[in-house]
Automatic annotation (TrEMBL):
Entry protein name: Protein-S-isoprenylcysteine O-methyltransferase
Gene3D superfamilies: 1.20.120.1630
Record-linked Pfam families: ICMT
The family this protein is said to belong to: Belongs to the class VI-like SAM-binding methyltransferase superfamily. Isoprenylcysteine carboxyl methyltransferase family.
Transmembrane segments: 167-192
Enzyme class, first EC level, given as a word: transferase
Manner of cofactor binding, per the entry note: Divalent metal cations. Probably Zn(2+).
BP-aspect Gene Ontology terms: methylation
Keywords: Endoplasmic reticulum, Membrane, Methyltransferase, S-adenosyl-L-methionine, Transferase, Transmembrane, Transmembrane helix
Biased composition (Low complexity): 12-29
Amino acid sequence: MRHPLVATSLGEASPSSPRARAPQSPSESLGLQIPAVPMSARRQAWQFAAALVFFHGSEYVLAAAFHGRRNVTATSLLISKQYVLAMSFAMLEHLTEILIFPEVKEYWFVSNIGLLMVLIGEIIRKLAVVTAGRAFTHVIRIYHEDQHQLITHGVYRFMRHPGYSGFLIWAVGTQVMLCNPVSTVAFTYVLWRFFSKRIPYPAERTSYIPSLMSF
């Protein structure tokens, strides 16, 4: 057995030698501690991404199925600049709260309620699209077309604007699912004002059109 001094002189680090210590990360060297991302927060982020992909992808597929692929553009994905900003703000809030208030993301019961809202909103929205068929469009129509007809069966028996209602429930549900208190309030307020202004518009301008299936 070699003497510790001999081993050190030959270039082998002893257990107490600084060379044997694990290297420090940049955050540790600066005295910063980055909290680990909670499992619930990671699950919420994956669910949020899946909800976005499925919603927008299915909107495009259904529009192409009912109106023909040649008549469908990228607008059927329902992604606008305002929408991107809203969802970006939601993700920014989610990440900020993970770093500052990680315990907020641990409310599994609240997150599961949001997930349920996402599913319910998605179902209502898609039932509206499938029931209306070609009468459903992502653009407000102010002129009569042959396929316009008053839809009174299916989900339209229970609500006048299931497309709007489904999207409202879905969008707010995504924020409840993320446990985003600020975005939940903001999404609810903005969407409620948006639909309250949008719904009367076609009703006034298209009183002679027996259909109101836009969006």
